[in-house]
Design brief:
2 copies of one chain form a homodimer. With 178 residues, chain A is mainly alpha-helical. Helices cover 51% and strands 8% of the residues of chain A. In chain A, β1 and β2 form a beta hairpin. Chain A starts with 30 loop residues before the first helix and ends in a 16-residue tail after the last helix. Chain A binds a DNA duplex (30 and 30 nucleotides) through α4 and β2.
Chain lengths: 178, 178
DNA sequence: CCAAGATCGTTATGATCTATAACCAGTACA
DNA sequence: TGTACTGGTTATAGATCATAACGATCTTGG
């Protein structure tokens, strides 16, 4: 008997299909749609990359920021990574349970914790860092250095466009009907 | 008394901070990190944009694809949008409950449904489409037409890089330790 | 024709990430 | 001192995503 036909790979649209003729052609004009799909691919790959280290995208991000900001406090860390404080607690519990991070009472403020990366955590972070760098190169394959830099720049611009409901309040959201 | 200092806006890094000196500088070198933040901004904005229509990013995507592919079946729709079939069921229940989409038994296959957009659905989709287009322009403010096209191209390339565990299996994932 | 296998939609369930309210201990300040 | 605020926490809910398993139906090989 023949195998179950094709594993899953249906060519829905090629990378150079300039907003072409796929069944999702309309959505392909939306940055958010293309970005969601690209991000899905990235997240799947980075999580697979980090899995051998016992990390995920989220836990790696937290670990890396603490590593480079020793003595950081949870509130500030939450600000930096745009994570709500309550959600950060569980992540830190996890990292602390893995002996990668320690919470130490801040000497000047007995409410706060100072976050530090353990030796084990630093080593793991370093190894994971290299794996993630390789992952990045994989995902960016086909992009030249300039294109890659332009991509980062565009992403940061979009991020900043999001956090500025500044002057465009007038023409902002259309209210369809009451 | 003075107001509670500053609402929340801490300038963590400006868009043109070329992998600069922020507390998350290391992560800024990762495409996934920048993309996650950009996508968060996009998703928040597009959901706010679609809220007056009673839609979200996900439901809008489904509605738009059905609109442009009348008679589509659920399995195929799931393939197109990379949604698992079970998850699609609830989304379609929602859209059907809003009288935007109908499920009709396929004449040639009594298991399958043919998905169609109602008149109400088409009108809503058209209006939402325009709002989303404006949203897109908001988020892409500061990008020229070429940069914007390059962004789409890069995103599609990344997506396709993700779905190709082809020949690079050798140097792929590092196994840290048993 | 018919039995085995595959497909379609569905239910149930769990994991992950996110968002909010409320709380306690501790701090800041008027 | 007392009132308001902050830092970390708990509890809880929502949204998205992933998997196993099921009944109904189609397909196919013998």
């Amino acid at each position: 008997m023949t195998g179950p036909a094709d594993p899953v790979g249906v060519p829905l649209s090629s990378p150079d299909d300039e907003g072409g003729t796929g069944p999702d052609a309309i959505l392909r004009n939306n940055i958010g749609y293309d970005m969601k799909r690209a991000f899905n691919a990235i997240q799947a790959d980075v999580n697979a990359t980090l899995q051998p280290f016992g990390l995920r995208m989220l836990t790696y991000s937290v670990l890396a920021v603490i590593r480079d900001n020793n003595g950081l406090r949870q509130s500030r860390l939450a600000e930096i990574l745009l994570i709500e404080r309550p959600n950060l607690v569980l992540i830190l519990d996890e990292l602390e349970g893995l002996d990668l991070v320690t919470r130490t009472r801040a000497p000047d403020d007995r409410r706060a914790y100072e976050l530090t990366v353990t030796l084990k955590g630093r080593r793991l972070c370093d190894r994971a860092f290299r794996a993630v760098a390789e992952h990045d190169n994989r995902m960016a394959r086909g992009l030249g250095a300039e294109e890659r830099a332009a991509l980062h720049k565009a992403l940061r611009l979009i991020e900043s466009n999001g956090r500025s409901p500044d002057d465009s309040r007038d023409t902002r959201r259309e209210i369809p009907r009451p």
